[in-house]
Each structure stands twice: as structure tokens, then as C-alpha cells.
Predict the 3D structure of the following.
Amino acid sequence: MEKASVVVVGSSNTDMVVRSKNLPSPGETVLGGEFFQFPGGKGANQAVAAARAGARITFIGRVGDDPFGDTAIAGLQKEGINVDTVQRDRESPSGVALILVDERGENLISVAPGANARLSTQDIDRCLGIIQSADVVLLQLEIPLDTVYHTIEVAQAAGRTIILNPAPAPQEPIPSEILAKVSILIPNETELAMMAIHPVRSDPEAEEAAHIMLDKGVNAVVLTRGNRGSLIVTSDRTLPVAALPVEPVDTVAAGDCFAGALAVGVAEGKNLEEACRFATAAAAISVTRKGAQPSLPTRSEIDALLKFHKKAV
């Protein structure tokens, strides 16, 4: 049977990570850390997560014409991802993320987007055929908003399922006419609070905030809540999905892992609850490992964890 197809439109970065006992406060220097370098970027992370979860993936992005760009493309190719749609930028360097992680797995991240900030609507138009034939189109917000909006419009006109992970949290409201084209919105609590202009300090508040997004036209909201799992909110039901118990080592790519795996579940025809449980298992595995892309699990690992917990219930 042919694999489901997912097109991921987004960012590619090189992650430079320092792990130390504590995160520094402003103006503070923390000594004694370990340094690691990993491929990253929300778009590339989600593309790798989806590829390892079992889908056929095309990544649309932009990297610099530099060693970081060479490494990023080679890494995606190694995962079997189609990178013919990745543009090389000779005027801007590849994106870089500086990441601090403490012993509890909490993190601080600062990103220099570089070439990611130059991914254009023209770049999207070069890939129309691929977008129009995908089962699912998955996007985030580490690329220009105009490019995100244009991709959503193109994908919706072709009748594609559109999943938007609004990360990092948008600094300006996303127009309702764009949100109305989104099939599934996957925010975390901070992102949902900012988008809905509504607190999410409790389950009732989170449900109210999600309904604000539904009123703006989004078809479904899947709120990710870290070790408290996720919350599915649609016009006719609210369903919590519990997290799986694990000891976290590094939470850097957990949200990207969840989004990529959810896209695969939806592309394969799973209902939203099934897709969320599949994504929850993938994210649970990812937080037990160091690094962004190196932490992302394979399909066999995800299926094994789901089978184990099904037997344990």
C-alpha cells in the first residue's frame, strides 16, 4: 500500500545546544555545561518526525548556500525526505537556534532565522503540484506569515487537509479568513492564550479559548499540554488525551514530534482521537532522548509503545 503523503512547509535550523544543571537568569553566566550540535528547525523537525512515523514527506523550505545548509539537506535526504523543493539562498545564511537545557529537560531557545525569513510566496508557487496532491499540508510560524497564508490558501483551494502549528506564538492576529481554512490547529497553552486573547489556566478556560478559535473558523483544536497530555476541542465535543508516563531528558522537540506524528495519523485516515494517541506516543518517546531530530522515534517504536500501553490498560 502506498504511504500517505505529507508536505511540510517551514524552517530548517542548526541547533547549538548547551546542557547544564540550571538555566541562567538574565545577566547570569552558568558554567559546567556540555555542548552539542544537532539539525533542527520546526519545519525540518516535523518533516523528520513525520518521515520516521511512516509517511512520504516533501519538505519546502530555504537554507543558506553554506555548510549548515549542506548538512541540513543531507540529513533530510538520509530520512528519505524529498528535498527537491528546498531553495538555496546565496544572500542569507542558514538559520541557527541557540538552545539552553537544564537537568529537568526545561529549555530556553533563541533563533536567528537567516534564510528561513526569505521563504517566499514565489517559492510556494514553484511547488503547487506537490502541495495540491498531498494528503496533509503541515505548517508552523518560523517562516514569513505571508508565505504561511499563501500556502494555506493554495492548499485549501485544492481541498487538502491543513494542519497549523502556531509556533512560535504569532505576534499579530492571524486573519479569520485564514483560520477558516485551517483543518486542525495545534497550539500549546501559551500560543492558544495569545491567539484567543483568553487565559488557559484551567481546563474550562482552555476549552473556552479553543472555542474562540473555532468561532474564528478553525475546524478543530488540539491543545498540547506537556506532561498533562492534550485536549481535543471540536464544535461538538471536548476530549482529553492523557500523556504517557516517562522520565523526560530533553523536551526540545516534543511539540514538533507531536505535530509531525499527528499529521501522519490524519493523512493515514485515523480519526482525530486515534491520531492524537499516535502523536502522544511519539512525543513520549522523544522526550526521553537528547536533541531535536535525533530524539524522534520510528514507526515501529511508536507502534510498540502503543501496543504496550494498550496491554497494560
About this structure: The chain is about 35% helix and 20% strand. The chain has one domain: 42-94+116-312. The longest helix spans residues 272-286. The domain at 42-94+116-312 is CATH 3.40.1190.20 (UDP-N-acetylmuramoyl-L-alanine:D-glutamate ligase).
